[in-house]
Amino acid sequence: MRILQLVTRFDFGGAENHVRELCNELAASNHQVILLSRKGRQNELLDKRVKFIQLPSFVRNLILTQVVIIGRNGQNSGYFLDNLF
Fold first, then answer.
1. Which of 5, 17, 33, 37 could form a disulfide with 10 if both were Cys (CB 3.0 to 4.6 A apart)?
2. Using CA atoms, how far apart are residues 29 and 73, in angstroms rounded to an integer?
């Protein structure tokens, strides 16, 4: 399965820890995992099989809004995910 995870920051915190553990476990279960986030201190703790895409620091709410809109539109979601994977 192809899985996209989004988190605005990837420093240490409850949500960030959960996303890291979830990404690592999904990758260990042979899923294709992409994490979109701004760079943080947890990058080196990610499994090597997780594809990390770093967002520029000025892109915060804009990219998350676009991903949600694209994800809800059935015609565009496959195209968007195919380009990420």
1. 37
2. 28
Neighbouring C-alpha atoms within 13 Å toward the C-beta of 73: 11
One-letter amino acid of 75: Q
Q: Are 34 and 4 in contact (CB under 8 A)?
A: yes
8 A C-beta contact, residue 60 and residue 29: no
Question: Phi, psi (5° rounding) for residue 28?
Answer: -65, -25
Helices (H), 1-85: 14-28, 61-72, 74-84
User: 74 is written with which tokens?
Assistant: 């059935």
Structure tokens at 59: 């892109």
Report whether 30 contacts 1 (CB < 8 A).
no
Grade residue 39 by pLDDT with cuts at 50, 70 and 90.
confident
Query: What is the pTM for the complete model shown?
Result: 0.69
Confidence (pLDDT) at 55: 78
